[in-house]
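Hi everyone,

Forwarding the result from last night's run.
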Amino acid sequence: WLFGASGLLARSVRVDGRDASRGLEVAAGASLANVEVEVTKSTAKLVVTVMNARGAGAPEHDVVIFPQDENAWGLYLPGHGATGRTNEDGTFEASSLLPGAYYVALGDDIQIDIGDSNDPEILAQLRSRAQRVTIGEGETATVQLRTNER
């Protein structure tokens, strides 16, 4: 896959001037002559720390990072969000995000299967308890989330 691993991220994909970021149906034998992929090397980093009720790092918690712009929900392009689990120190790092405004939430109590982390229904549930963060190009932002566990 060209994007992500090479340090490049796709900002958008257009076919014949229309947004194709969510995918595109192509008939067998059809030509794709006017494909535009806007890429960038300008990324941002987000470090999320999850703390328990005692103030210690809380390992093995699910973290979901997703755009504040609902129109970007459902995009499956690298850099438009991230999911993962906190490490033994209670930290999760998303090192290749596009600069922008994001929600950050714990997804522990919501069953998230592979591919569901962009599901608008799941993101709507998470949004009500998420923290907001905006990250600029080349910046590293930090967010601290809390659990009730001891």
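The helical segments are 120-127.

Cheers,
N.
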